[in-house]
Every structure is written in C-alpha cells, then in structure tokens.
Batch of 2 targets.
Target 1
Amino acid sequence: MDKMGAESGNNTPMRRISESTIRRLSVYYRQLAILESEGYHTVSSKELARREKLTPAQVRKDLSFFGSFGTRGLGYPTTELKAKIAGILGIDMVWHVALVGAGNIGSALASYKEFAKQGFEINSIFDNDQRKIGSNHRGITIEDIETLPQALKKHHIEIIVVAVPASQAQKIADIAVNAGVKAILNFAPINLKVPPDVVLRSMNMSMEMEYLSFYLCNRHKIDVPGKG
Amino acid sequence: MDKMGAESGNNTPMRRISESTIRRLSVYYRQLAILESEGYHTVSSKELARREKLTPAQVRKDLSFFGSFGTRGLGYPTTELKAKIAGILGIDMVWHVALVGAGNIGSALASYKEFAKQGFEINSIFDNDQRKIGSNHRGITIEDIETLPQALKKHHIEIIVVAVPASQAQKIADIAVNAGVKAILNFAPINLKVPPDVVLRSMNMSMEMEYLSFYLCNRHKIDVPGKG
C-alpha cells in the first residue's frame, strides 16, 4: 500500500489512519460496553475521554474520521455508537480463522473465548505432529500442516494465527500469503516478512518481558516510558 | 516518574528513552544471535540496519544511548555487543516471576520455554480454583490466590504475569503493587491502572485481532498501517 497517497477506485485520495487511532477504537468499544452495562443511554466525548485518560478533542477527532456521530450537547447514543464502532472494526461479522501450531500457546488460543465472542472463529487447526493430526480439539479435527495450502482455500480462511516455533514461522506465513490470506496474528518470537498488502500483528511475549526487565534495571537512571 | 525532567541522585537530568528504542534493542539482540550463529565475528551498523529495515544512523543512535560500542570502520564485535545489550535489557540475570491465573493461557505461559531461556523464571503460580490449588504444574505447586500478598514478598517476586479474567485483573494488580511489585505483564483484556513507578505491558490478543479485521474491512478505503 502506497503510504504517500494511494488512491481508491473513485479517484479520491485515500485517507491515512494511524495505528493508535485504530487501537483507540478498540478501547472506545470496550468502554461503551461498560457504559451500556452501567445503564448510560448517552455518553459525552468528555466522559469517554475522562474514562480513558484522553482529551475530548482526541475522542471527537478519532470518531469524526468515520463520519458524523452524536449530537452537540447531547453526546453520543451509547448502544448506537458501540454498534457503529463494531461495524468499523469488523467485529459485527464472522471471520474464518485458522490456527497453525497446536502446542501449548496454540492450544490455549484455540480455547480462548474472547476470540469467538468477537466473531473470530477458529474453525481449523494445523500441526505437524503425527500424534496430534486427526485428533479432536474442542470439536475441531487437527489437520496435517502439509495440507495447509489447499485447506486455507477450502475453508475460506481470512486470518491465520501463527503459533509454531520461530524456525517454522516464516514458511507458514509464506504459504498463507500465497494462498491469499491477508491477515496474520503471529505468536512466534521472530519478525515475519510479508508483502505490503498483508497486515501482520505480532505478539512477542519475550520482548514484552524484556521491556519489563529493562525498566527494572534502568528506572533509576533513565526516564523510561512505563505504561504499555 | 516525572516525564518533564526527573532527576537522578547525582543531580544530572535523567535522559529520556523512547519505547521504540527499547523495542529495537530486543530486535538487535535477536539479530545479533542470528549473526553469531552464522559465524560473523563483527557486524556493521549498515548490515544490522539492512537486516532490520532500519537506517544505519538509527542503529548507531540507539546504541550510542548506552555508551560507545564498536570501532569506526570495523563495526561492532558481534558477541560482545550481544552481551552488552543483554546487560542493558537485564536478560543476563534471573528474574523471579509469579504467574497469577492457571487457566488455558496461564498454563501455556507457565510452559513457555522462551521465558526461562531469557532468565524469566516463573517459580510460583496462583489460582483461585480449589481443584487446582496444591496440584503440581511442571514442578511448581499451585498456590491459593488468597495468599498472594504474603507469597509475593516471600518469593521475592519482581514481575507478575496476570492471566486471570478481566473482572479479577485490577484486584490482582493492586495486590501486587501493594506488595512492592514494579513490573506487570497483563494478558487480561482490560486496561489496568497502576502508579507511575510501575511498568505495565499488556498483551491484548482480542485488540490485535480487531486490528486485523479493521484492516480487512477498510484496506480498500483507508490507508491503514499494515505491519505490526
């Protein structure tokens, strides 16, 4: 994707959105769910900002990116705004997710209820361990990783979760990219390389731990940003 | 910590370091391990930069923050630089880590070999499930979460990993903070609140998934930063 000014089909320049705006949409969505459960029918940008330690201007700017919400003086209707953000984030639909790697982390992810709640349905699992292939994990039969290229297409997989050892992860990413998968969530402790039209998010637990130990070692010497 | 100009004991102003610099130190460390395994005795900032798609100036700037490394024209000695960075990151020592929550994710983390490799030793595990308390997980007896305040001190815990449900996570963080813990790795899907002298990193897997679905929904309409 051309960051300098890619164009959409109708020749209007594509607007750029920052990673932190997308992240804040997820945060607003969660806060709106809390507000809803607390019985608030409307919420002001001021209150939403206060709860997330942001400025009201930031909240309004983030939301205005996606059109006009709310009424001046009345605030945003809670349930409606939550539904709008769900639509923007794409969590009002079902996604076909494949998990590659059924080790400790992979198996835990396959059982992670938060994913299913948001429409991320892990409906296929792959491994290279002959003792695991063909066995059943919570209703899903573990498939042979060798069949990945065909299976990704057959199951219409849109997102893959990579939970294989670091040494295998790039090979898996390449197979997925070749099969047309455009979104990868990576748990292997390695920087994967993917083409610019593929979105990759990496969860590097070791690096997060290193951030903590760095802080513990240096906090009296260096001004370290603390909160993650 | 005062971001505007905290002072260290000797009255020299504390230098600030960015989150991305710390992250890149982890990346350099991993790349140096690869270079070492490939037999390179020295490496130039240019080569390190090329492998991580950074500029040589960026590499030199990051490393110069921690003192003077390498020799102009000769590059950095691979093994020595790797050891220096390990020291800076604090992964050349053993950290006492407690895991709170022995569910699917928690159990997987307790078995995660990468942590132990880098000196993060999970040597105590806590849960509130009576069926789990007292049972053995890979040599560690699961303790009652009710004993957490005393146990954190008794085991000299420096880092806690929070893998409890969202509704319990803030309570656990508060207990840890009160017990003097200064570093928290959080897997619960909630924004924890901690004092400014406590470092918190959160692994929000659902939010990362939402980033992917956002991208898949909007990539033809909006210029979305792809790589994580």
Target 2
Amino acid sequence: MPAHLFREIENLKREILTLGAMAETAVRDATCAIENRDEALARRVIDDDIKLDEMEVQIEENCLKTLALHQPVAIDLRFIIAVLKINSDLERVGDLAVNVAERAAFLATQPPVDISFDFQAMARQAQEMLKRSLDSLVNLSAEQARAVLRGDDEIDAMNRRMYLIVQDAIHAHPDQTESLIHLLSASRHLERIADHATNVAEDVIYMIEGVIVRHKAEDYRPQADR
Amino acid sequence: MPAHLFREIENLKREILTLGAMAETAVRDATCAIENRDEALARRVIDDDIKLDEMEVQIEENCLKTLALHQPVAIDLRFIIAVLKINSDLERVGDLAVNVAERAAFLATQPPVDISFDFQAMARQAQEMLKRSLDSLVNLSAEQARAVLRGDDEIDAMNRRMYLIVQDAIHAHPDQTESLIHLLSASRHLERIADHATNVAEDVIYMIEGVIVRHKAEDYRPQADR
C-alpha cells in the first residue's frame, strides 16, 4: 500500500473509533439519565449530538477524498466503504441516544413508574453490543463481529417482553399511561441501537472476508464451519 | 466517461430505481392492509421482503465491482457512493413496510379502533415523500430533492399528534390499549419511512452538488439563494 494511502486509512480508522466512542458515551449517558431521573444529563446528551453530526460529515468527506485521490482496491476499498457505512450507523446511534434522552428528560418531570421490567439490563445489552461491534472493528475480528450478531435476538425478545409489560401496566395504572408510553419508546430506541451495532458488525465481517452477511442467518457461523 | 463505466452506471441507475419501486409498493400495500384490515395483503408484504433484501445485496456488489474495476472520479464517484447509501435506505424502508404490515396483520384480527386521527393522510405523506425522493433521483433534480426535505417537519408533527390522540384514546377505551399501541407503532414506522426518504433526497443533492446537506437546516434553500 502506498504510504499516503496507508496514512489516510490510519486516519480514517482513528476518526471512526472516535465517533464510536462518542456514540457509546451518548447511549450510556442517555440510559443513565433514565435510571437516575437526571434531566440535566439528558439535556447534555441532546446538546452534544451536534458534535457527532459534525464528525460524521468530516469522516464522510475524508472517505470520499481518499477514494478519489488514491483509488484504492481490494481490502482497502472495502475498508473505506465499510467506514462510510459504519459512519452512518454511528451517527444514527447518536440520534437514537438523543431520542432516549428526550424520554429521560420527560420522565424525570413525572412521578416514577414502577414496572417489573429491567430497563437497565436492556440498556446494558445494547451498550455491550455497540461496544463489541466497535471492538471487532479495532481488532479486525470477524469472530468478535459474529458474536454481536448473535446478541440481536436477545434484545428483540427483551423489547417484545417490554411491550407486554407496558400493556399490563397501562391497564393497572391508567394514570401513568403517558410515562409508560415514553418508557416503551425508550426500549424501542435501545432495540434500534442494537440493530445499528449489528449493522456495524456485518460491515466488519464484509470488510474482512468480502462476504455480505446481511439477510443470511446461516452466515452467522464462521466461514470455516460452512 | 469510458463506455464500460457509462454502461455500469446506467445499469446501477436502473437497479436502484427498481428497488425504489419495490419499496414504494411495499409501503403502499402495508398501509392499504391497515386501512382495509386485509391480513392476506399484510402477509404478502412480509413474504415479499426477501426480494428487496436480495436486490439490495446485488446492488451493493455491483457498486463495489464498479468502484474496483473503473475507479471512477468526480460526479461518477459521487453517483456510486450515493447509490450505495440510497440502497441501504430503501432496504430499510422495506423493513419498515414489513413492520407496518405486521401491525396490520394484528389489527385485522381485532375489533376496529375508532380514533380521530387520519392515518391514511400520514401514509400518503410518507409515500409522497418516498416517491418524490426517487423522482429527484431519476431527474437528477436538486430542486425536487429539496422539496422532500421540507416535507419532513410535517410528518414529524403528524406523528406527535398521533401520540397525544392515542394517549387520550387509551384513557377513554382502556380495553383497546393493545390495538392503539400497535397503531401508534405503525405511525412511527411511517415517520421513519419519511426519514429515509429525506436521506435519499440528501444523497441526491450531494451527488448533484457535491455538498453534504445533512444537519444543516439553512441548506434546504437552493444554492443560488445562499
């Protein structure tokens, strides 16, 4: 690889990991704001989203510059395309963290709701998937990426459980309907954050192996097993 | 432009418009299934999604092949990157149409709910935005694309109104809570479909003008106005 291209790719890797860290922080703070009824923290997540947006635009511009100037091929081309896609996903994770934070800001002003759903367990699962998808990118590990894909069913099941619990809670406490609907929204935002972590993991696998694994359940196994 | 690259780009354009038409059909059928309580139509949308998934993978592979073989620059490079991104958005529109269809399949089995919300008006707005974003791609018209961006606030407002109406309806008819929550979900899926139409329009503007308009409210105006 020419030295210039190598430097650009190292730079892109640094930038996308920075954006990943920013997205992780936003998700963690937004879910903490729900747990601790912390309106100020929620507001900070909302205000800070502009930094993620700026970073996303910068990364996309750098990807395009690198494609135009260096015309990379093979793994380098796949790396840049993967960064372009991961970039969009991380920016949307930031938007979803803002959505969770908006719910947190509202819930902090209302009497606490008491339901038998472990929201924090779901938040941890979403954060864990996001963290692992970024680790798989740092380590260029298709194996770590495949572990992320397997976590997605679990969070979908949590979200479905949340639905049923909220429905029952609305029947039991109709006066808390508004808060319960907001909590349900937050749960769905977490599920979508996990979806984006899954997308990141799929892009990492694609980058490493040159195989598109989307929509193929059987491809969750490592290549050697197929 | 070399003849080979020209042919590849024409082919990509044809493919992405085909995917767009498939996504439009899925959204139209899913919302019709809600309106007409048509479970069979809902099931068809769900079953047909695999065709959109396959088309998405094919388009992505063709984009990457074109990048690797022809190393396009300037507008051609931007075109291919835009197709890559629009491709992801259209595939997700298909997924959201499936989500709406799942709600439709459930609602068809329940007694009808009567709320003062014009769901079909919201469905029409989402479909209109999707159609216009694809028209802006066919016609390579930044002006048409900017009109799509302006429609997004309207659908966000509709979704917020839906929230309030559903909340009141749950208080008035607690026995319909489940159906009402499903209807609220469908409304949010429509809002996300409109978001993806907005993404498509932004990518069309980027392709034509080489300007990233995401996160910049002031850039909704045509360049000449700035």
